[in-house]
Amino acid sequence: MENLKVTIFQAYLFWENIEKNLQNLALRLSMGVREKTDLIILPEMFN
Known about the structure:
By secondary structure, this protein is of the alpha+beta class. It has one helix at 18-32, and strands at 6-8, 39-41. The model has no long low-confidence stretch (mean pLDDT 82).
């Protein structure tokens, strides 16, 4: 069985602003995920 690589993403969320949250996620992930990951876990209230 292979190992599962998990990335847990914690970030400030902008209330009821989906577009800004998605932009923030894209920016943070491009800066922070350096290795291959199989699963990205977002905050419960992300969307």
